[in-house]
Amino acid sequence: MADSAGIQQGSPAIGAAGLVPAAPGAGGTEGSGAARGSARIAVKKAQLRSSPRPKKLEKLGVYSSCKAEGACKCNGWKSQNPPPTPPQTEQQSNAVNLQEPCRSCSHTLGDHVTHLENVSEEEMNRLLGIVLDVEYLYTCIHKEEDADTKQVYFSLFKLLRKSILQMGKPMLEAQESPPFEKPSIEQGVNNFVQYKFSHLPSKERQTIMELAKMFLNQINYWQLETPSQRRQRVPNDDAAGYKVNYTRWLCYCNVPQFCDSLPRYETTQIFGRTLLRSVFTVMRKQLLEQARQEKDKLPPEKRTLILTHFPKFLSMLEEEVYSHNSPIWSQDFLAGAAGGQIPIHTVISAASVARPLYYSTSPVSVDPSTCGSVSPARKAASVLEPNPAGEKRKPSEPLSHEENKRPRVVGDIPMDLINEVMATITDPAAIPETSLLSAHSARDEAARLEERRGVIEFHVIGNSLNQKPNKRILMWLVGLQNVFSHQLPRMPKEYITRLVFDPKHKTLSLIKDGRVIGGICFRMFPSQGFTEIVFCAVTSNEQVKGYGTHLMNHLKEYHIKHEILNFLTYADEYAIGYFKKQGFSKDIKVPKSKYVGYIKDYEGATLMGCELNPSIPYTEFSVIIKKQKEIIKKLIERKQAQIRKVYPGLSCFKDGVRQIPIESIPGIRETGWKPVGKGFLKNAWPFMEPVKKTEAPGYYQVIRFPMDLKTMSERLKSRYYTTRKLFMADMQRIFTNCREYNPPESEYYKCANLLEKFFYTKIKEAGLIEK
């Protein structure tokens, strides 16, 4: 699936890529037909809203009850002279007479619209929008052949008609209001992606997200088959239940696409698995058939995505849609993400690679695919360690450096403003999990979820000669020895066994389902201020899930807890990339005298080091970044709100003023604008006046046609520049003379280049020359 990872996120669904939409009511995509119909109505509404007020009153009078004395029962004014076909010209039709009598009750048009005399234009335009929706539904009722659909149209027609009469907002009266089922289709698909694909690397997970968005987009624009059509196709189905959902879909999703006076909802947000089950089989079949028929019309960049990956995605989703025990439809799915019993199963394996997913030569060989991050969910404590690797550092713990005394930097955001913004964020201490359908979800999102569910655990373990042997610890050590031996085949097994069981070495072990699947073996040198990393590996069938980064982050947290802030390791050629992503570099901060003779040297390997920052909680780094992004977002919104302030227009030009300084325009500085004159003066100073012979001997022997800005100003005042070319020629002469007389490394030469660039930028902006 890696070959389609370049697809841009948020691209249109299949129907927009060249497939023909099905006819309404036939079960298919609404597509361009819906868009054209909606656009036509929008144009009509815009035209009517721009009409004169008498014309608007005439239109509303047709749908307004008579207010004349005597309790007239007429519910709408009717013209004595109905408009001819074709209609009159626009100029003739604008002549509206409020005294024209009604053909039905004989009362005037004015008697029907007296309640609208003091109504604002905004309210009148809203009512006119409902009027056009009523007329559209009236047409639909007469064209529709299906009895169930026609009944819904008629009900909505009466609702909108009543809203005009009562000057109210149309409110659908129903026993239930949206959403009708939880979790929604959108949430279910999101859970499906999270449940099945959270272990994939970010590139492939991005492709899955693209497929999910395509699918959701298709449902939102899918035309449901009528209940009668469904009864013929599936006689034994729950007809009554489908009819209820079909009616809801018409009222809340389909008709509001054309009649925008009705509240509109996305199908995927208010319906759940019940509706999805009723349409999925037919929808899947039609989509794949259309894709095959239109494959030559598909853009090349989408062909692989739609023809290869989309069918596989739909097949896997179909299993979850019709499964009776799929966890993605449980309302407790998110609760399970925070510590429930829902496991994550590996269904799709990662893209194949040309070489084995293990490395050798060095004891710290690792698979670069394990560099994806996972989250910190601190679980059970280790038997041997009083402070397990998973234990969270408390915010109140004192740090070894005086972070509170750090100097303020110019441009820093004041803390009182930060605190004020934080107060506007709902529960800032509990940042919500980012949807995996989001383009901005963190790489460690899925792994954090996996640890919180209790699927994986981290323990620092080691052999001991002083304590009674612990069976579980010994079994885990044997498991680590097996993992390292299998993943590092060039490393002698005896050597691996000796170090793993050496009491001076410890291993951060990754436990899944009670068995070891990976770990980092290390030896601490507290007196020297560093730790040597010896082995780092994850078993082959559990790779490409981000465990490698999460292991390293837990190891960093463990060492900060024990006040050791430097790692050293010898990395082979395959492991260098992984360690660079974990913050290691070849620039060793530890003095050579501190580690020579202490760490093991390996031929052909590269010594790398990592300096830890005790103020960083590494296993929660992505959460912190998410919180920072939220703060920045709020700050930007505040700034935008200030910029959007409307100032009164400039009236000085009415008094004869020809021009004003830009900085005097109200609000210009609030947008971030800064005067550019300083930059001009900074580079123009050598050219302000003619060159003095005392300052540049021999200048006038070299430069035959001198020029400067003062001379140009005098020429400008005397109207010397009769053409644009004359002005530009003199300006260019300044730059050319400077570069001819001065060497390239001189300050004058550099000023000429900068000023020339500034000059041509400005004349392009002014439209004096082509850009």
Task: Throw out a few tags for this protein.
771 residues, alpha+beta, Aminopeptidase, 5 domains, 6-stranded mixed β-sheet, 27 helices, 8 strands, flat, Histone acetyltransferase, PCAF_N, nucleus, histone H3K9 acetyltransferase activity
Which helices and strands occur, and which strands form pairs?
Layout: E1 28-29, H1 31-49, H2 53-61, H3 90-93, H4 109-112, H5 121-143, H6 147-166, H7 185-197, H8 202-220, E2 222-223, H9 227-233, H10 239-254, H11 267-270, H12 273-293, H13 300-322, H14 333-337, H15 415-424, H16 445-452, E3 456-461, H17 471-487, H18 493-500, E4 506-512, E5 515-525, E6 530-538, H19 547-561, E7 566-571, H20 576-581, H21 592-595, E8 606-611, H22 621-643, H23 677-684, H24 699-702, H25 709-717, H26 724-741, H27 747-765
Parallel strand pairs: 6-7
Antiparallel strand pairs: 1-2, 3-4, 4-5, 5-6, 7-8
Helix pairs in contact: 1-5, 2-5, 5-6, 6-10, 7-8, 8-13, 12-13, 17-18, 23-27, 26-27
Protein name: Histone acetyltransferase
GO molecular function, one term: histone H3K9 acetyltransferase activity
Binding site for acetyl-CoA: 536-538, 543-549, 574-577
Can you describe this structure?
Residues 1-11 have a biased composition (Polar residues). This is Histone acetyltransferase. The active site is at residue 532. Helix 12 packs antiparallel against helix 13 (300-322), helix 17 runs antiparallel to helix 18 (493-500) and helix 26 (724-741) runs antiparallel to helix 27. The strands form two sheets. Strands 3-4-5-6-7-8 form a six-stranded mixed beta sheet, sandwiched between helices. The chain has five domains: 32-80 and 97-166, no CATH class; 185-322, no CATH class; 446-622, 3-Layer(aba) Sandwich (Aminopeptidase), CATH 3.40.630.30; 625-666, no CATH class; 678-766, Histone Acetyltransferase, Chain A (Up-down Bundle), CATH 1.20.920. With 771 residues, it is of the alpha+beta class. 44% of the residues lie in helices and 6% in strands. It has helices at residues 31-49, 53-61, 90-93, 109-112, 121-143, 147-166, 185-197, 202-220, 227-233, 239-254, 267-270, 273-293, 300-322, 333-337, 415-424, 445-452, 471-487, 493-500, 547-561, 576-581, 592-595, 621-643, 677-684, 699-702, 709-717, 724-741, 747-765; strands spanning 28-29, 222-223, 456-461, 506-512, 515-525, 530-538, 566-571, 606-611. The longest helix has 23 residues, at 121-143. It is flat.
